Amino acid sequence: MILEQAILNIKKGRKSEFESAMAQAVPIISSSPGFLGLEVRPCLENTSRYLLLVKWERLEDHTEGFRNSPRYQEWRTLLHHFYEPFPVVEHYGDPLPS
Amino acid sequence: MILEQAILNIKKGRKSEFESAMAQAVPIISSSPGFLGLEVRPCLENTSRYLLLVKWERLEDHTEGFRNSPRYQEWRTLLHHFYEPFPVVEHYGDPLPS
After folding, report:
1. Which sign, positive or negative, has the C-alpha torsion A7, A42, A10, A82?
2. What band does B91 get if pLDDT is binned at 50, 70 and 90?
3. Which of residues 13-72 of B touch A (CB under 8 A)?
4. Residue pLDDT, tens place only, B18-61
5. Which candidate from B26, B44, B92 shows the least CB-CB separation from A41?
6. Binary contact (A41, B98; C-beta < 8 A)
7. Strands across the sheet containing A35-42
8. What pairing do the DSSP bridges indicate for beta strands A89-92 and A35-42?
């Protein structure tokens, strides 16, 4: 399992619109092959910030499958205009043994 | 549940030492009241980077309980010298409904 991670900074005054748009966008990404789950959590220290965590079976399910699909165009249209700055997206592998 | 999040950037050439130290440090934080779970995942895009996610019952279990305990001194001694720059730690609340 691969964990996609991004810190989302939302433009001033747009939080509730962003939250509605995200609720519309979740079913779009959820139907993508290899999608295993998503959560968006509000930051306690910075109220215009959210943590996005998306679980994918394989890296390519996100970087190729989703991003090259028409679903990604819908996701972009719904969400990308809320971000400032545009988020850096990274991927993380299986947890270290502990 | 509160999710603590930090991006850990490890000094050049110190990765395997860091991973051993983290394996020693996990039981220390795990015995802290309110601790619910921890994962450390390696970044796929940047091999000296890790994502730390720690689940706590309440924010204060981390910011007061753990950080004011002798356990935190052990955690610091084991881990803090590996980081460059020193990580920004943030806390995130319950996920948005979807």
Report:
1. positive
2. very high
3. 19, 22-23, 26, 38-46, 49-51, 59
4. 999 999 999 999 999 999 999 999 999 999 999 999 999 999 99
5. B92
6. no
7. A35-42, A49-56, A2-9, A89-92
8. unpaired
What domain range is A32 assigned to? Answer: 2-83
Do the domain assignments include residue A98? no
Residue B98 lies in a domain: no
**Model confidence pLDDT, tens digit, residues A3-37:** 999 999 999 999 999 999 999 999 999 999 999 99
CA neighbor of B8 nearest in space, from A96, A42, A48: A96
Interface test with A, best of B4, B10, B28, B44 (most A CBs within 10 A): B44
Query: Is residue B63 in a domain?
Result: yes
Query: What is the CATH number for A65?
Result: 3.30.70.100
Number of domains in chain A: 1
For testing the chain A interface, which of B41, B48, B50 should be mutated: the one with the most A CBs within 10 Å? B41
In a domain, A48, yes or no: yes
Pair B55, B32: CB distance under 8 Å:
no
The span from the CA of A65 to the CA of A58, in Å, is: 10
Contacts of A90 in chain B (CB under 8 A): 43-46, 49, 51
